[in-house]
Structures are given as C-alpha cells and as structure tokens.
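Proteins fold. Shown next:

***
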Amino acid sequence: MKKIERRAVVCAILALLLAAGLGVFLVKYLVNGGSWVSSPFNRHLYDTSGVLAVGTVLDRDGDVLSSAENGKRTYYDSETVRKATLHAVGDLQGSIGTGALNAFADKLTGYNLFNGAFGANRGNELYLTIDARYNYEAYQALNGHAGTVAVYNYKTGEILCMVSAPSYDPLHVPADIETNDRYRGAYLNRFLSSAFTPGSVYKTVTLAAALEELPDLFDRTWTCTGSVQIGEETIVCSGTHGEQHIGDAFANSCNAAFAQIAAELGADTLKRYTEKAGLTDSYSVDGLPTVRGSFDWEDITDGELGWAGVGQDQDLVNPCALMVYMGAIAGGGRAAEPYLIGKTVSALGLPSLPHLTRKTGTLVSGGTAEKLAGMMADNVEKTYGTRRFPNMDLCAKSGTAEVGEGQTPHAWFAGFLRNEDAPYAFVVLVENGGGGSSVAGTVAGRVLDIMVNGY
C-alpha cells in the first residue's frame, strides 16, 4: 500500500511539473511567439541570405518603401528616399535594429496567436506613420551632417518624420562603412537610441521650475556682463545682455541669468522637474525603447549646478523624450505617446484594429505649460524671426551645446506648432552643426514649411 502511495505522490508531482512546464511554455508563446516565427532561421519566411522575403512596408500615403518581389526584397526607386527612411524601414543585413524589417517582422509576416505563420508566405502590408516626402526633405536639409530630425502629432501620437544621419543606401552598402568616419554611427537611430548634451533647450525645464518655485520671478531682473561667477565656476554667456527680466533672459538664452536661477533652485528641485518632464524616462515606440536621458545631481557644486541648469555639465537628453516634452507643453501638460505603426493589412485585405492613442502622465502643470508656450512664442518673434516660419504659430527654443574643446557645438531646435490643423511637436539636432537657431532652426523651418504649406 505504501508503495502505491509513493507512486501516486510521484505521479502527482510529475503531473504538476508537466502542468507548470506547459504553463511556462504558454506564457513564453504568448510573449515571444512573434519573435520565434520571425526569426531568420525560419526558411519559410527568409531567403538563403537571411533577408525577410515576405511583406510590404509602406508610408502613410501608401508609397511602397520596401517590398518582396519573387522572394527578393527591394526598395523605393529614389536613393535619397532609401537613405532618408533607412532607420524606419531597415536594411537587408539586419543591422538597423529599429527598422521595420527587423523590429516588426512578425507584423510583416502576418503572424498571430491562433494561426501562427500559416499563409505568411504572402505577407502583410505594414503602413508606417511617416511620410516619405517629409523624411526626404529632412535628410536633404541635414546636408551631410550627422543628427536627427523628427516631427510628430502631439494629439494623436503619429510620428510623421523620423530621420537619422549618417545613413546609407540599403541596396548598395558602402564597402568602407565599418572604417570610414563618414558613416560613424550609421547603424544607430539617433532619435530613439542616443542621448546628447542638450544645451539651452534644457532651459525650458529650468524655466518651468522657476515659474513654479520662485513667486517673484516676473518682478526680478538679472544683469548680464558676459559671464557670471558661481562658486568656482565662471559661467560664460553668448553675449552681454545687460539688465533683463525673465522674458528677455529666456529670449536671449542668457546663461548668466539661468545659471543663477539654477543655483537658487537647487539640485533637488531641478532633479524633480527633470524627472517630471520625462527626460530620464524610456518611452516605448511600438515596442522600441528609447534611451533614457541622464543627469548627475549627486554631490554637485553650485558652479556645476549653474552649468547643468543651462543644459551643460553632465546633462544628456534623448531627442524623442525632448520632443514628447515639447508636445506636453503644447498640450497643456500631457501629450500623446509616439508610435510608428499606422496599420497592417492582411493578404485578404483585412486591416488591423485602429490605434488607440495613449497619453503621457503630466509632464508639466497646465498653468506652467501655458506660460512656457507664450514665452517660447516670444522667442520666435524676438529672436528667431517669424518670417522664417510662414503661416506657423510656432513656439520654440534653440540650443547650442558645447561638447568639448576644439569641437563645433551641437545645434538644437525644438518646439511645437499651435496651428489647429498642424498640431506638431518637433526636434532637430545637428551634431557639431554650430548655432542652434541658425543651423538647426533652418532645418526645422524647411521641414515644417513642407508640412504646413506644402511647398
């Protein structure tokens, strides 16, 4: 009898282990099934060189960016468009991790939980939210510089333009891509996967903190003589601005004034507002994680805090997170989370379910967002020039980020439109480009002009 009981216990344990194993497998299947099916080892879906041989990638207007013809993958006819959309579409070797051919292979194959990859040899049509023409104009506007340009609808979350440079033609990969400095970082999507010294675009965060923490902010003035001494640091300004109130200090992008404000606010306050703005968070763009920004607030001196408050010192910001923050200012404190996949259409012509817009948390309070927007609009009128941005109710902040002795600064331009029919937030970074307004602002103006005026 005891032997039977022992055997029963063993059988019960084995049954439990089997059930647990099946449970684990089921969970893994639900989570990873798409990745398993879309693995390059699946010869039903990939050719002998490991290239996805099914599915079509299109832009928002239905222009085919990449398709499979007779089991071989091809791309858009224009070489420049291929380069401009590379980091959204992907390459033949799988080197571009954010490209649809790699990141969204399961959607291109038509995989689902019930049918697996049955019938996947026909593939799906995958519509991205980007517009190939906007990407083309942005890539051309960068004019050979490394950097990124992105624009999204802060009400819906659609990414309309996403360009990263340097880039290359996926149909004719340069033989020296691994050794030529011209292509350094070409595999990297700078918009999603990099963080950079922000320079004065970060002053929007310092200003948000000042608006809420300094009750007499609008009654005070700051005198700029070209530099200011804070602790052991000499904070150098881009000009000699004289006596100025906060509006002029922001329009002048005065380092002297904002460094003093940062030191007065303190590291804990700036840290809190930086985190609230989402600049240390990672967003998920259809499953593609963005890099977190980083700031060093520990054991920071007053002088270092002054530099940090103007976007220098150890500050690093991800372009996507900055763009979303701009969208939140435009949206009264919150913005739509960005996404890249518009829809998929099966071989039978059945579309996927509509995208559900998700909002961020509160990145800035409503009242502060309204004041920031007004002051950013003043920047355009007082400093950047409204003629450069025709038919645009533009709010913006430029940045010229010092990145090392002997190196040309990074040029930034970030902001948003308040046009009812063009609720767009944007970010432009031109690495080692020089002046933020003159260089990055010109790139932004060219792209936004096409989007708003259709020229």
